[in-house]
Structure formats: C-alpha cells, structure tokens
C-alpha cells in the first residue's frame, strides 16, 4: 500500500504518459478494408502501386489536336473520344472531340476547349461521318489542358507515411490508386467503468437521491473519438466485495485483452470511495494533483488475483472533473499511439474579469471565437451544461488570483471534444 501522492500537473502528465507508453508498447497491426479504415492509423507507409493519373488525359471537354496542325485552315473532325475507352491514333489534319478525363490519343499534344472552337458545340456522329470540319484558334501550346500520367503521384512514390491517421481525403487517394486494404495499428483496447450507487443508466427513472450516469457516455465517446476500442461495464457497486468481484470478472471474461482500464469516481476522501479503498492493495496509487477541477487522481499497474497486469487510470467522479482529466492527462498520452492531432494552444483576449483560486492550475470552460475567450459557468465540477456549450478551456496559472478583461490567456481549443 502506498501513501497518497501530491503532484504538479506536469508530474502527473509525465506519469500517465509513461504508463500509457508501457501499456501500448510496440503497436500490433492488422489489415482492414478501406470502408472500415476511417480514423485508423497506418502501421506502415503506403507506396503508389501505379501512377495517378494512370495515363495522359484531357482536363477539358474540347478537341484533341496536334498543335502543328493549328493554322488558318479548318481541321477534319475525327471520331469522339469518351472517358473509359482507348482511343485510336490521331491522324494529321484531324481534331478529335474529347471529353474530360478521356485518354489523350497518340498523335495529339494539346486539347483546345470546346468554347474556343467554331462551331462551339460538338458535332453528331452523323455529321462526323459526313466529313464535317472545325475551325480552331491559330497556334496553340503543346501540353495545354492535358493532365499527364503521374502528375498527381508517380508509381512507387510514398503516398502516406506510417503513423498517418486515415480520414476522407487520405482514403480517397488510396481508393483512387486502386488500394482496397491497408495495414493499420490495432486500436488500444480500453475497459471503462464508473462507480457510485447513486448512478443509474440514461433512460431509467430516477429514484430519490439518484442521478444519471453521464461519465460512461462522456468518456466512452471521447475515447472512441481518439481511436480506442471501448468496452463499457457500466456502474459497479460501491460494496468493496462486489466491486472487486465485478472488476475481476470484467477483466477475465471474454477473448479481449485490455491495454488500459479507466475508472471514474470513488477516489476522493468520501466514506464510500470504493476504487481507492480496494485498489490501493493491488498496485494503484491515489492522491491529488494541483489542478481544479480534477484534483483527485489515481494511476498504476493493476494486478488483481487471476488477471493479467493492466495499466489503470482513475479519474474523479464529477463529469467536468473526469473530462478535464481526460483532456489534460490521458488524451495527450494516447495521441502519438493513435495518430491523434494534439490540441491547439492559442493566445486569446479574455472578454471579462475572472477570479481564480491560487495554488492550483485552474481549468475554466468557455468559448473561443475571433481571438476572444468568453468564460462559461464557474469553477464547479458539476456544470455539464457549461461544458457542453464550450469549445475551449483556459489554463490559469496557479499563482494567479484574478484576471482582468482584455488580458491575454492561454486557451486550449477542444472543439466538440472529438
């Protein structure tokens, strides 16, 4: 059993990062189809199996020509070239109607847009068969309105680097190259639990003294957005015996091996703080971090009887405290393992004066817009509505006791929490 710790925010960030680094270690990989790859992280670089475009093609609807033919005389019109077909060679003295994306025929070195032709509309097949001509502008620059093979990406070139997080645009280039399957890192597997006999699942009727469990949904959504696979066990009993039994059962049942266990609640100084009461015996340290909200914290390697050791991170039970703890401690530690972009820290002008409690880093919610931060709600850790309406938090130094309107503040932009 360890004594309660007292840590700075930086110290606890380093401890959580080390714990997560050890838990996730060398990433495991798996192959997935593109349709299931959004949000996944590439385990290896992807090289282009072919050039893109795969052949020279037209950038415009117009006429494929040899620029040496462009003089004062009209040109005979050859058969039209549509996208998706291989064209015949272009004869000297001819211009071939060509559609956007269609292959450039051998013998052509430019495309003249249809708007520059006289007449400025394509002839019918019957007119072409009858020997119709077209007048095109004198001269012309070789290469005009041609998209050359490999001008987007050349065969063998690296398309995406290892570690890239796959989004719509990166999936689009892979599909365009004909790639249907990619090797990605396996998602970190997280077991998520809440504690508190007062908690009931959303959708259930409340009895006197009960509240709905917000943390399971809040943290599960955040972890999934970060790229984790989350198993929710819901709210565990505040009885030490039942809590221990339920946690052992959750860790030892099923095929899934968990990389990380996250809990919320039961770690403060109350009479029924079951997480701290039970898990101090099994390798988890608890204490306080100089931050508000989110002071009570716990972490370590959990070694329950009959279970494999697993990294464990304990957050406080108030929803705002739990979420701030995730943003400040866990999300940064997960980021490099899942290809997650770090939150952006910007300077903003404070819209109104604020009071601050010294001795702790104050994390206050609000909105960031056009370089200005506007506070929402107070310092209390139960104000879910203010959290939901916020898109950022400011970090107030632990020495500060007050801030003035117009003061520059450090603002962490979190958006909608994804």
Summarize the structure.
This protein has helices at residues 9-24, 125-129, 168-176, 215-225, 240-252, 274-279, 319-338, 384-389, and strands at 5-7, 29-33, 46-47, 57-58, 62-65, 75-77, 94-98, 110-113, 133-134, 146-147, 158-160, 181-185, 189-195, 199-200, 211-212, 229-236, 260-264, 284-289, 291-292, 296-302, 310-315, 344-350, 354-355, 361-369, 372-375, 392-396, 402-403, 408-413.
What does this entry look like structurally?
- The protein has 418 residues and is α/β, with parallel strands linked by helices.
- It has 4 domains: 175 residues, MoaB/Mog-like domain (Molybdenum Cofactor Biosythetic Enzyme, Chain A, 3-Layer(aba) Sandwich); 54 residues, Molybdopterin biosynthesis moea protein, domain 2 (Alpha-Beta Complex); 91 residues, Molybdopterin biosynthesis moea protein, domain 3 (Molybdopterin biosynthesis moeA protein, domain 3), CATH 2.170.190.11; 70 residues, Beta Barrel (Beta-clip).
- Helix content is 21%, strand content 29%.
- It has 8 helices and 28 strands.
- The strands form 8 sheets. It has a 7-stranded mixed beta sheet with strand order 1-18-20-21-17-13-16, with helices on both faces.
- A hairpin with a 7-residue loop joins strand 20 and strand 21.
- It is elongated, with a radius of gyration of 31 Å.
């Amino acid at each position: 059993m360890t004594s309660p710790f007292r840590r700075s925010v930086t110290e606890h960030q380093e401890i959580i990062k080390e714990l997560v680094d050890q838990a996730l270690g060398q990433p495991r990989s798996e192959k997935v189809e593109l349709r299931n790859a959004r949000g996944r992280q590439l385990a290896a670089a992807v090289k282009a199996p072919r050039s893109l475009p795969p052949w020279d093609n037209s950038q415009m609807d117009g006429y494929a020509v040899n620029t040496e033919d462009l003089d004062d005389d009209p040109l005979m019109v050859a058969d039209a070239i549509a996208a998706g077909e291989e064209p015949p060679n272009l004869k000297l003295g001819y211009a071939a109607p060509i559609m956007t994306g269609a292959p450039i025929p051998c013998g052509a070195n430019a495309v003249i847009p249809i708007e520059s032709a006289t007449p400025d509309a394509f002839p019918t097949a019957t007119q072409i068969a009858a020997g119709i001509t077209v007048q095109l502008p004198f001269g012309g620059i070789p290469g005009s309105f041609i998209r050359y093979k490999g001008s987007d990406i050349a065969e063998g070139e690296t398309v995406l680097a290892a570690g890239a997080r796959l989004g719509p645009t990166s999936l689009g280039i892979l599909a365009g190259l004909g790639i249907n399957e990619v090797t990605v890192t396996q998602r970190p597997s997280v077991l998520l639990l809440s504690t508190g006999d007062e908690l009931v699942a959303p959708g259930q009727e409340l009895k006197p003294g009960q509240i709905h469990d917000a943390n399971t949904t809040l943290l599960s959504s955040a972890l999934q957005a970060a790229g984790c696979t989350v198993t929710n066990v819901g709210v565990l009993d505040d009885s030490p015996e039942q809590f221990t039994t339920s946690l052992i059962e959750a860790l030892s049942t099923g095929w899934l091996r968990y990389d990380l266990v996250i809990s919320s609640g039961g770690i403060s100084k109350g009479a029924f703080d079951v997480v701290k009461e039970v898990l101090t015996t099994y390798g988890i340290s608890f204490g306080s971090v100089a931050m508000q909200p989110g002071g009570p914290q716990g972490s370590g390697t959990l070694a329950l009887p009959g279970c494999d050791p697993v990294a464990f991170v304990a957050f406080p039970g108030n929803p705002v405290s739990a979420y701030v703890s995730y943003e400040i401690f866990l999300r940064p530690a997960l980021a490099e393992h899942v290809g997650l972009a770090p939150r952006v820290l910007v300077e903003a002008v404070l819209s109104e004066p604020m009071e601050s409690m010294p001795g702790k880093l104050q994390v206050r919610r609000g909105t960031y817009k056009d370089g200005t931060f506007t506070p929402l709600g107070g310092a209390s850790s139960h104000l879910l509505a203010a959290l939901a309406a916020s898109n950022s938090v400011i970090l107030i130094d632990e020495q500060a006791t007050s801030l003035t309107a117009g003061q520059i503040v450090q603002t962490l932009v979190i958006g909608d929490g994804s």
